[in-house]
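Dear support,

I submitted the protein below through the web form. The confirmation email said the job was done, but the results page showed an empty box. After a refresh the structure appeared. I'm attaching both so you can tell me whether what I see now is the final result or a partial one.
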Amino acid sequence: MNTLYRDKAVHWLVGRPNLILAGHLLMVHLLVFGGWRSMAVRLLWLVALGLFLLWQPFVTGERRISAVQGAGLFGLALLSTLFLGPWLLLIWCGALVAVIGGRVLWSGQRRERAGYLLAFAYLACLIVFGALPEISAAVVLDPIPRDLFGRFMLLLLPVLLFLPAQPLRRRAGDAFDLFYGVLVFLVLAVLILGALAYMLVGGVSYVESLFKTTLTVALTLLLVAWAWNPRAGFSGIGSTISRYLLSVGMPLEHWLMQLAEESEREPQPERFLAGIVGHLEDVPWVLGGEWQAAGRGGKFGMATRFEHEHRGDGLALKVFFRHRPSPAMRWHVEWLLRMAAEFYLVKRQAHELRQMAYQQALYETGARVTHDVKNLLQSLQVLCYAANQPGDPVALTGLLGRQLPQIAERLKSTLEKLQAPRFEASATVDAATWWAGLQDRHAQLGICWSAAPLAEDSKLPGSLFDSVAENLLQNALNKRQREGGLEISVHFAEQCLRVSDNGSSIPAKIAEALFREPVVSEDGLGIGLYHAARQATAAGYELRLEENRTGAVSFTLAARQ
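What the results page shows now:
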């Protein structure tokens, strides 16, 4: 229960960063204004460090630390408490000013930024009116007493509680800007050291030296700010420095992260391109952009006369800059746009592959249905041929009565394939019944039939064996028309069908590609075997050319071992 209340208290504090910051500033204030001299008051330093660990923007405040890390932090806290003095407090206040300047001054809300500016000014006053007079007796606040400053400064801390503040985001690359933090620390160091140097060299009071140094630094910063981003028509110092920086405003890792996230979020190529180009609007040196691809386009922001364009593979990306871009900036932008273009091309190729796969599924479905219909037509032609031959009418009626229901069932199965464009396991039939029906359908064609003894419960996939048998027999009959006197033999064993002839061999080039792809031939040999082989593979069988020499050509359908 105590652990639950403690966790709730920690989450409540983390959700109110201004309250934590105000508490930390209060502890530091008491220590700076003479409290560091008393060992009892120095214990407030441990409280200040704990509040800072909850507020700091570097790692997650709710994160649990290990026992070793906790022991190390506790040891450092005790050591700093033991040696606590004005110099350590001065360095701590300067570092805290750098943290605020390098991270939280970039808050987007005006009132929230005002709160951090108040904390920034409060720390600067702690350094000027609190820490420095503790270091040297020569630093005297005259004529206003130093203690009076300390009392009135405490009245500013409650104001910090009424200013809004959101919990700090602690994502990678978003927690602390080292460059701006160091810059703020150096400006503060110049102000403090400049005030001390001018006081000693010029022989003036500390207050006068501080006033003149502050005024000088303020004017210098104002001049630098104007020169950095002027309004007089030239690019300024900011553009000049960017000539030598490769990561101008958008690090490569951050851009890759945005590309990956947008790619996962949006599978459609053009919508992905519109989304990722829109991210360039957050870059400070970009005012607008345009994109065109696959007959579609879009834009954001505003167009300027400073632009950079990337074209390739039916894609056009254009970025408009605030100022004239340097060669280094153009090189950087070109790589950002090129990576976006590569992601787009990959998604477009994936989209085209999906379309091709859909068209291939339709083609294969149509080819299989055409092949089955052709086999059905051949069966009907055989029955019509048998009906036109003289013979016993009773036997003919029995043949038609046996074969027509089978043809109707096969036609129904063919129509079902048209609705489901994929290979499906066909229903099994009795092997002996299937073999008898195959002989009945081709009894008048002069084919030599032979079979091995079959088990009573022997089953086989009827649709597969019908398709392969009809295809092989029709190819053999077409070959008989070209080569007179051709003998065709069919042998059936357990889960194995062999169709042979004594004609000429199949050419090597055709035999090599016979079951791998459709082949061109004068009587259609190849396309049917290609689809029959794919159907056999899907059902767990293998269709192969077992023998291929003049006088002995043999095809076999057997279960895959």
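Response: this is the final, complete result; the empty box was a page-load delay. The first strand starts at residue 286 and ends at 293.
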